[in-house]
């Protein structure tokens, strides 16, 4: 295959990853695999990214009563792990109905003998770019790959504006927004999200890196922003 074909294939993939149809089909398959083989599906960015995020929240002394939401929660893996750490005001939202069905089933399966624990996570189907959708206030807003997928679209700038507005609206005063990305560096994330009322707080360091072609990089970048009150 020549380079022109490769470029067209890459362009198509990039475009597809930014569409709801792609993710609907993906989670339809993952839900089917769960029902047939009890397979929980893909953990986006791997356990290492989840470990970094959970470690940050723990070391920062985040209250177990903190209201935490995962934007684009997928199968709910991150929230289920936070639940195991004692956090109990957890919300997961995704615009794919099958993702929410999968996340709910996995969560209930882990807590089928503990009714109280099963109520610690609420999963909802939500389109994050719908200006009419209604969400509560949260102390911690998390994004693990959701902005990456949103950005793979021709209307990336419009999506960024709507997404940034949403985060500012649902994040309570002095709350934190944690974003993990495979496509953007810390500086690029700061350029897109580090403007009032959000302020850059810190980068969540990775335990491991990789070296290729004489350059060292990370598999994912984790950045924390804080909502400031003037």
How does CATH name the architecture? 3-Layer(aba) Sandwich
- Beta-strand segment tally: 9
Quote the beta fraction. Answer: 15-25%
| CATH homolog superfamily | Vaccinia Virus protein VP39
Number of helices: 9
Provide the CATH top-level class. Alpha Beta
Name the assembly state.
single chain
Give the biggest beta sheet: 7 strands, mixed
Residue runs with pLDDT of under 50 for 5 or more positions: 1-13, 210-216
**Tally of individual domains:** 1
pLDDT average, as an integer? 89
Strand line-up of the largest beta sheet = 3-2-1-4-5-9-6
**Large-scale geometry:** globular
The span between the termini is 57 Å
What can you see in these coordinates?
With 230 residues, the chain is α/β, with parallel strands linked by helices. It has a single domain, classed as Vaccinia Virus protein VP39 (Rossmann fold). 44% of the residues lie in helices and 23% in strands. The strands form two sheets. It has a seven-stranded mixed β-sheet, sandwiched between helices. β7 and β8 form a beta hairpin. α2 packs parallel to α5. Belongs to the class I-like SAM-binding methyltransferase superfamily. EFM4 family. One of its GO terms (molecular function) is protein-lysine N-methyltransferase activity. Its main location: cytoplasm. InterPro entries: Efm4/METTL10, Methyltranfer_dom, SAM-dependent_MTases_sf.
């Amino acid at each position: 295959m020549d380079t022109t074909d490769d470029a067209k294939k890459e362009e198509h993939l990039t475009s597809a990853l930014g569409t709801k149809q792609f993710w609907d089909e993906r989670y339809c398959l993952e839900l089917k695999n769960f029902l047939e083989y009890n397979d929980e599906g893909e953990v986006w960015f791997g356990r290492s990214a989840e470990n970094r995020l959970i470690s940050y929240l723990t070391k920062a002394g985040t209250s177990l009563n903190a209201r935490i939401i995962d934007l684009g929660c997928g199968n709910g893996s991150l929230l289920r792990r936070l639940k195991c750490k004692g956090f109990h005001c957890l919300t997961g939202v995704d615009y794919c109905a099958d993702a929410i069905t999968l996340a709910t089933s996995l969560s209930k399966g882990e807590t089928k003998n503990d009714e109280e624990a099963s109520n610690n996570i609420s999963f909802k189907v939500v389109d994050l770019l719908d200006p009419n959708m209604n969400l509560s206030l949260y102390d911690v807003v998390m994004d693990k790959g959701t902005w990456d997928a949103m950005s793979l679209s021709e209307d990336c700038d419009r999506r960024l504006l709507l997404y940034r507005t949403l985060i500012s609206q649902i994040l309570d005063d002095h709350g934190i927004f944690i974003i993990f990305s495979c496509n953007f560096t810390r500086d690029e994330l700061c350029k897109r999200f580090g403007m009032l009322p959000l302020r850059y707080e810190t980068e969540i360091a990775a335990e491991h890196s990789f070296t290729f072609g004489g350059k060292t990089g990370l598999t994912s970048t984790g950045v924390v922003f804080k909502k400031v009150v003037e």
